[in-house]
């Protein structure tokens, strides 16, 4: 089922996009992300030998889905950086400090979509602007549409899972420490994970 449409192309030899599934019409509308049933996480390599996982506990966002023109769909997310949680209070404090996110000065991280395309089946790719530490750069997120359902409370829901990779130094997150055995304490490449449930607005 396609939520996001294919990008326009001037290549007349390319295959035409598949017709929009008429079932999508029922999904058209504005949605609010249900943070209590969603997750925003990340993974960083630590000391070159293991992965440290973290998440953000306080975030909000919205989606606009357009069933007749899926390429017009959009997404917006705001994350409170003080809500970072890696399972270690000391590490969380370091991440909030001036070495990393400077949460006193930059309390919010944002994502605003700019375009999207269908890759086939339930796979999609959405591009948008990620703003961290006052720096805004584009990122690309691969998404899987998990479906739509009405929950026992009458809420119409849609669900997505997503992943992306970023180079943190591109946003000014450059703190590190050298290891005696070679390499560095924290990887520059960070993996992002998204599990989103959104409720259609009344």
What does this protein look like?
The protein has 202 residues and is mainly beta. The chain contains 1 helix and 11 strands. Strands 1-4-5-7-8-9-10-11 form an 8-stranded antiparallel beta barrel. The longest helix is centred in the middle third of the chain and has 8 residues, at 89-96. It is elongated. Residues 1-10 and 12-16 have low confidence and may be disordered.
Keywords:
50% strand, 1 helix, mainly beta, Lipocalin, 202 residues, 4% helix, 8-stranded antiparallel barrel
Our count of domains comes out at 1
State the order of secondary-structure elements, H for helix, E for strand. EEEEEEHEEEEE
Task: Provide the CATH superfamily.
Answer: Lipid/polyisoprenoid-binding, YceI-like
Structural class: mainly beta
* Assembly state (oligomeric): single chain
What is the top-level CATH class?
A: Mainly Beta
Shape: elongated
| CATH fold descriptor | Lipocalin
Task: Summarize the main sheet.
Answer: 8 strands, antiparallel, barrel
């Amino acid at each position: 089922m396609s939520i996001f449409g294919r990008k326009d192309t001037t290549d007349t030899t390319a295959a035409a996009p598949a017709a929009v599934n008429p079932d999508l019409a029922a999904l058209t509308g504005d949605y609010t992300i249900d943070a209590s049933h969603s997750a925003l996480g990340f993974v960083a390599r630590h000391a070159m030998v293991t992965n440290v996982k973290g998440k953000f506990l306080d975030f909000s966002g919205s989606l606009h889905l357009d069933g007749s023109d899926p390429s017009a769909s959009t997404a917006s997310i705001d994350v409170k950086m003080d809500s970072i949680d890696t399972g270690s209070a000391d590490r969380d404090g370091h991440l909030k400090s001036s070495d990393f996110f400077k949460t006193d000065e930059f309390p919010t991280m944002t994502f605003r979509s700019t375009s999207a395309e269908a890759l086939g089946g339930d796979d999609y790719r959405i591009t948008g602007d990620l703003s961290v530490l006052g720096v805004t750069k584009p990122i690309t997120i691969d998404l899987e549409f998990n479906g739509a359902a009405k929950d026992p409370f009458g809420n119409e829901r849609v669900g997505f899972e997503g992943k992306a990779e970023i180079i943190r130094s591109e946003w000014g997150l450059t703190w590190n420490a050298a290891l005696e055995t070679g390499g560095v304490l924290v990887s520059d490449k960070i993996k992002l994970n998204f599990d989103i449930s959104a409720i259609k607005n009344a």
